[in-house]
Specification:
This protein is α/β, with parallel strands linked by helices. Strand 15 and strand 16 (408-412) form a beta hairpin. Helix content is 30%, strand content 19%.
Length: 429
């Protein structure tokens, strides 16, 4: 199946929004007032976390998880109505961005419209009651994709939303058959050509445990047959171990290199430091440099994700179950750095197909170039602990422009000195 957007999607930036907590009002209309600022960060996409009504049975917290959906074909009235959503999507387009919405097709709330109308669409336990495979997901019941009529209902629903938005972020997409996603993509493409598909794939340990219990869980390599972008949860545990001092940077970078080896040409892994399921990166730095880690998420091959509040170095992880607005008065603001890195990603890294990775202790060296070139076009030297270092780079000796500071850096005998701040060299002496 052709993926027409893959030539550009890996050089783009997605900004994730939980409508409930993004503003005090928690509505579509209130979000519109922030679109200009979001665009100024370099965002190409606004991803809206689930916009549908939330179930009441087994609800967690006071307002419930947006991932326990009651009606796939309606809009959460707390956010506004369908006209308000259409107005927001139009405003996103006018701001120069596109809109992704969340698709949660592994499960629904226990009191969902789908369960009320089609109880046979759901997985049942040995007792004959609807249930779920993941024990602590107590506010949901799992769908059963062995039922062909379920596929028809779900695809029809996707096509209706595809007439409004530009892409889907599909929750725990690995638990839904790849064949379903292939069919859905083909039918949505007829409704909205160039539609973009982002899969939340799962941690390796989670996938292994699921398969051991007899659950369906597609492999990341299979998922790229239907999706343009996938989460990087396949290497997340290695990154966590690196931050916690349990693994080396070289080990983590080697797994990133392996991604480039095993996944299809043009496939995009999503690069992020935090999301709504992970702790805020500013809360877990230890001795690591936020600026260099942030730069790494932009210079690696793949689509970059920003989670709302990351630009203010927020340390509080907003609740999924209650009203918990982002504190937009936070003092630490790296918006300028994010905008600069996004510009580098858009203007300099776009179209650079090759990637080389190496590590000298805690310094990551990322080379990005074109097929057939002797040397990379861009070399990023990122001291992830923020310490000064002298590092070997694959560049001829000479003076190079640093795209971050705007100054010059000297390569001598194949070595460049990093002062500890992000260093991104454009390979034109």
């Amino acid at each position: 199946m052709p993926h027409t957007c893959r030539d550009t999607i890996s050089s783009q930036v997605i900004y994730s929004v939980f409508v409930r907590n993004h503003t005090q009002e928690g509505t579509f209309r209130a979000l519109e007032g922030d679109l200009g600022r979001i665009r100024s960060l370099g965002a190409d996409w606004v991803w809206l976390m689930p916009i549908h009504p939330i179930g009441e049975v087994s609800r967690k917290g006071t307002l419930g998880s947006p991932y326990a959906i009651r009606d796939y074909r309606a809009v959460n009235p707390e956010y506004g109505d369908l006209d308000d959503l259409r107005h927001l999507v139009n405003a996103i387009h006018q701001a120069g961005m596109r809109c992704l919405i969340n698709v949660v097709y592994n499960h629904t709330s226990p009191d969902s419209v789908l369960f009320e109308e089609h109880p046979g669409f759901f997985w049942h336990t040995a007792t004959g009651k609807p249930g779920n495979h993941v024990g602590d997901w107590t506010d949901i019941i799992d769908l059963d994709y062995n039922v062909g009529a379920l596929w028809d209902y779900q695809v029809e629903t996707l096509c209706s939303w595809a007439r409004i938005v530009d892409g889907f972020r599909c929750d725990v997409a690995s638990f839904v058959p790849v064949d379903f996603w292939r069919r859905a993509r083909a039918e949505v493409e007829r409704v909205h050509p160039g539609f973009v598909w982002l899969a939340e794939t799962v941690h390796r340990s989670f996938a292994q445990a699921a398969r051991a219990r007899g659950m369906y869980c597609a492999r990341d390599s299979e998922m790229f047959d239907a999706f343009d972008i996938e989460y990087s949860y396949d290497v997340q545990e290695a990154f966590d171990d690196y931050l916690d001092g349990k693994a080396t940077l070289a080990h983590f970078l080697d797994l990133l290199d392996y991604q480039d080896f095993v996944f299809p040409e043009g496939a995009s892994k999503m690069r992020y430091l935090e999301n709504h399921d992970l702790p805020r990166i500013a809360s877990r730095l230890g001795g690591h440099s936020l600026g260099n880690l942030t730069a790494l998420a932009f210079v690696l091959k793949g689509t970059t994700l920003l989670y709302a509040g990351q630009e203010l170095c927020a340390t509080h992880q907003p609740s999924l179950f209650d009203k918990d607005p982002i504190d937009w008065e936070a003092k630490d603001d790296i918006s300028g750095l994010l905008a600069l890195l996004a510009r580098i990603k858009h203007e300099t890294l776009a179209g650079l197909e090759t990637q080389t990775l190496s590590a000298e202790k805690d310094v990551a060296v990322v080379g990005r170039g074109r097929v057939g070139d002797q040397h990379p076009s861009v070399v990023a030297v990122l001291s992830l602990t923020g310490e000064a270092a002298e590092v070997k780079v694959s560049l001829p000796d000479g003076r190079y422009r640093d795209l971050v500071s705007g100054g010059r850096a000297e390569v001598s005998d194949g070595v460049v000195r990093s002062a500890g701040e992000p260093l991104i060299l454009q390979a034109q002496p």
